[in-house]
Structure formats: C-alpha cells, structure tokens
Amino acid sequence: MIGLMVNDQEQKELEYLLKREMDELLYDFSHHDLDPQLQQAIKERYTLLFNIYKRFASHKECLKYTPHKNLFNAK
C-alpha cells in the first residue's frame, strides 16, 4: 500500500478529476454500438476510479456515483 498526503485544495482537485473521468466513462458507455470488450474495459475502469473516489469524497457525494446493480446492464 502506498500512502498519499494531500492538502484540501489538492483533495478537491482529485475529486473533481475523478468525477469528470467517471462522467465521461458513463457517457461513453451510453453508446449502444460499443464492442463488448470495450464495454468491459469501461466497467473495470469505472469501478477502479470509483474505488479511488470513495477514499476522497464524502458519503453523500459517493452515493451520486455509486455503480448501481443494473447501471451497466441497461441498454
């Protein structure tokens, strides 16, 4: 495990970057003509970014980005 010390401003910037990237992944995933391998890669990347985001964001903010059970199954 690697530790990371950040100040409040850096924390807010990391939260912002993670949220923007997760939003982009959700937008990309909304295209119905995606290759199944690409869909799987998007799911994995979103999950990884969300797990990082959980370490920085409040519980209330995390609820907005929590991957729901059917989030990636709906078409």
General description of the model:
- It comes from Alkalibacillus silvisoli.
- This is DUF2508 family protein.
- With 75 residues, the protein is mainly alpha-helical.
- The protein has a domain at 19-65.
- Helix 1 packs antiparallel against helix 2.
- The mean pLDDT is 88.
- The protein contains three helices and no strands.
Radius of gyration: 14 Å
Major beta sheet, specifics?
none
What fraction of residues sit in β-strands? under 5%
Quantity of strands, as a count: 0
- Average per-residue pLDDT, rounded, comes to 88
Structural class: mainly alpha
Protein name: DUF2508 family protein
Write the layout of secondary structure elements.
Elements: H1 8-29, H2 36-56, H3 59-65
Helix pairs in contact: 1-2
Summarize the structure.
With 75 residues, the chain is mainly α. It has helices at residues 8-29, 36-56, 59-65.
What characteristics describe this protein?
single chain, 75 residues, mainly alpha, 3 helices, DUF2508 family protein
